[in-house]
Amino acid sequence: MSFGTILSPRNTIQPAGAISAEEASRSYDAYAPTYDDLDGGSAASALGIDAARSSLLSRARGLVRGGGGGTGLNVNRYSFGGEGGVTALTLVDISDGMLSEARAKVSKLGLPPGVKVEFVRADATRDLVGIFGSNQFDTVVDTFSLCVMGNEGAKKCLSQLRDVVKPANQGGKLLLIENTRSSNPLLGMYQDATAEKASEMGGKGCVYNQDVTSMLKSTKGLDIVKEEAFAAGLFRSFEVVKR
């Protein structure tokens, strides 16, 4: 069976600057009504985030699990139904408020008949395999949520994403867009000096200087197929497969 599921993890975590699952749930319930102004506003468009979303997410096929857009920012970027399209969608988030916003967006899309949409509240650093099982999704999507989890939480999330996606020989893939440490040395140093404080002062818990490339390479069983840097490497998109 091939159907499209989209997972939206926005979740847990321990290291400096990161916030716990409980804090994330409370905070993002409060942020939900205005969240799109930050991740989907004019600044995001100017940085190339909208274009990156559209380019990457057009590759989603079959059973898609998508993440990091708990209000449903990604949903209108997918091709639903038809040959090679997304035929089922599962949105996952730690915040009921974010999922409520996503439900409102999805209700206005006019999806083709037969496209199944589910909304699941879960912690993406620990719950996904238990809820969905292993090797279930054709495409797993995560956008801009690893930074909220801290480094250890992000690594746990990547392991969960790896386990629920189908292997490459069955057509499975991970599609990620994440905040990353800049490839510009001076800008990277600035991020290092300010990341923790920025996460506390309006960054919604996001520690924006993670080395996501290294995290992916160190996650057993994953291979990066394509990586693209945007805005001097302040964020990157990745297409990744499981061996």
User: Low-confidence stretches at least 5 residues in length (pLDDT < 50)?
Assistant: 1-17
User: How far from one another are the termini?
Assistant: 20 Å
**Content of β-strand:** 15-25%
CATH topology name, in short, is Rossmann fold
**What is the CATH first-level class name?**
Alpha Beta
Largest sheet: 7 strands, mixed
Give the CATH superfamily.
Vaccinia Virus protein VP39
Task: Give Rg in angstroms.
Answer: 16 Å
Order of helices and strands: HHHHEEHEHEHEHHEE
What order do the strands of the largest sheet run in, or round the barrel if closed? 3-2-1-4-5-7-6
Count of strand segments:
7
Q: What is the number of domains? A: 1
Question: What structural category characterises the helix and strand content?
Answer: alpha/beta
Mean pLDDT: 84
Helix content: 25-40%
The total count of helices amounts to 9
Structure description:
This protein has one domain: 3-Layer(aba) Sandwich (Rossmann fold). The protein has nine helices and seven strands, in the order H-H-H-H-E-E-H-E-H-E-H-E-H-H-E-E. It has helices at 21-31, 35-39, 42-46, 49-57, 96-107, 128-132, 150-164, 185-200, 212-218; strands at 62-67, 86-93, 116-121, 139-143, 173-179, 222-230, 235-242. The longest helix has 16 residues, at 185-200. The radius of gyration is 16 Å and the shape is globular. The two termini are 20 Å apart. Residues 1-17 have low confidence and may be disordered.
Task: Compose a concise summary of this entry.
With 243 residues, the chain is of the alpha/beta class. It contains nine helices and seven strands. The protein has helices at 21-31, 35-39, 42-46, 49-57, 96-107, 128-132, 150-164, 185-200, 212-218, and strands at 62-67, 86-93, 116-121, 139-143, 173-179, 222-230, 235-242.
